[in-house]
Amino acid sequence: MSLYLVTDRELCGARGVAETVRRAVDGGVGIVQLRDKHADADEQLRQAEEIAAAIDGRAAFVINDRLDVALAARDRGIPVDGVHLGQGDTAVLGAREALGSDAIIGLTANTEEHLAAVARLPRGTVDHLGVGVIRPTSTKPDHPPALGVDGFARLAASSPVPCVAIGGVRLEDAAGLRAAGAAGLAVVSALCAADDPERAAREFLAAWHAGQAGSRPAGRGASDGVGR
């Protein structure tokens, strides 16, 4: 999960989502999330097929919010590895039951109350949390107050599962977020809007690895709570 791409069709522009994904995965992105709040199920299925082809087995692939789309994609033979759910989306227990024990299930969290709720779930229900926002971001206009690196570190330290930092993450944040306990960086604008997504991904990974020496454990993970 070192580098996690969340797609944005508008930011990808004329290059398109699938080509942006292909180039970002060439640069080392390890997990891709299809996020398109304005697309209906059929359009998301079309995008899922194109994205899966662009990934070509080189990275994990999850669908944002839409468990129904993830299941429909699997029925069509599209290799979808799981879902990322928000606090108001499909019940996470239902998603785990529907997708199976090997699926990737991520969950949005930005408060201690969210962490406590995850800790009460059966072990193995949630694989990781998307924690943010780190900075204010236009890609999620209804976001909660920005946590900053220090706020992220406080939540990551008490999380029962690994935490991925998301929301306005910049290149200069990478080393600090890793040192703060991040299991990875989820990036939207910095890759989708980049002139060269492959080069941008490589730059993020280089900055991420630069933070390794000072890094703390990324959540309590399998030792406590629901880690798998």
Summarize the structure.
This protein is of the alpha/beta class and 228 residues long. 39% of the residues lie in helices and 15% in strands. The chain has a single domain (3-223), classed as TIM Barrel (Alpha-Beta Barrel).
Determine the number of helices (DSSP H or I, runs of at least 4 residues).
10
The biggest sheet amounts to:
8 strands, parallel, barrel
Distance between the termini: 15 Å
SSE series: EHHEHEHEHEHEHEHEHH
The third-level CATH topology is TIM Barrel
Under CATH, the homologous superfamily reads: Aldolase class I
Structural class: alpha/beta
- Rg, Å, rounded: 16 Å
GO biological process, one term: thiamine diphosphate biosynthetic process
Cofactor: Mg(2+)
Binding site for 4-amino-2-methyl-5-(diphosphooxymethyl)pyrimidine: 33-37, 64, 108, 140
Protein name: Thiamine-phosphate synthase
Description:
With 228 residues, this protein is α/β, with parallel strands linked by helices. Helix content is 39%, strand content 15%. It has a single domain (3-223), classed as Aldolase class I (TIM Barrel, Alpha-Beta Barrel), CATH 3.20.20.70. The chain has 10 helices and 8 strands. It has an 8-stranded parallel beta barrel, surrounded by 7 helices. The radius of gyration is 16 Å and the shape is globular.
